[in-house]
Backbone:
């Protein structure tokens, strides 16, 4: 009688839990953060922790896309205009994230800003997942190796989740808004100064928004130019 070959638990685990492809992973993130926004809307009491967890989820997600997924799409030939629009949408959300990280839920307009951010993210998700026309559909059409990217992104995500503390999140970095960001803060802000005096705080890029969380006119022009 032929002896049965033993399979190690590690191998069994790998077979049961393969890394999802990159697009499946990103879609799962979309569902998760949507649920978090809904939870925030129904929450009462101190919502600081939940708000920061939402920001962490978005920061990790955007880093995965900008560092791994988007470059792979661009390299595979996905339309430059489509990728540029996705990046501009990311940067628009980052402005709001910075605003939320610098405030508290009991501050004026805070809940309204969370709501506006949730609507902004819904729009972005709709554009990415649009059948036949969105970034995900274009990536598959361009034969992006989503399985290989999935493994790479799963490793990176694990690293970022462990690295970022919701209570001390770093301000996300801009790409398409970089020129406007530098103009708003000024070179002196890099040294912790506003340029008006050594004891004054540097301007916050969130000042590019109205109190209701919408881009001010000059920022809208910047977004329009970047999307062309």
Residues:
């Amino acid at each position: 009688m032929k002896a049965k070959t033993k399979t190690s638990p590690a191998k069994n685990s790998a077979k049961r839990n393969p890394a999802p492809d990159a697009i499946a992973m990103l879609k799962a993130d979309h569902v998760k953060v949507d649920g978090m926004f809904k939870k925030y809307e129904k929450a009462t009491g101190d919502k600081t922790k939940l708000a920061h967890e939402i920001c962490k989820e978005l920061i990790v997600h955007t880093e995965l896309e900008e560092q791994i997924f988007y470059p792979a799409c661009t390299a595979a030939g996905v339309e430059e205009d489509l990728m540029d629009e996705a990046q501009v949408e990311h940067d628009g959300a980052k402005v709001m994230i910075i605003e939320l990280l610098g405030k508290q839920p009991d501050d004026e307009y805070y809940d309204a800003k969370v709501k506006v951010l949730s609507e902004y993210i819904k729009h972005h998700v709709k554009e990415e997942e649009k059948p036949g026309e969105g970034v995900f559909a274009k990536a598959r059409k361009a034969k992006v190796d989503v399985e290989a990217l999935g493994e790479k992104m799963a490793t990176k995500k694990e690293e970022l989740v462990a690295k970022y503390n919701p209570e001390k999140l770093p301000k996300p970095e801009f790409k398409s808004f970089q020129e406007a960001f530098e103009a708003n803060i000024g070179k002196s802000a890099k040294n912790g100064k506003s340029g008006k005096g050594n004891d004054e705080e540097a301007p916050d890029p969130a000042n590019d928004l109205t109190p209701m969380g919408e881009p001010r006119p000059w920022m809208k022009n910047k977004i329009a130019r970047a999307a062309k």
The chain has a mean pLDDT of 81. The radius of gyration is 20 Å.
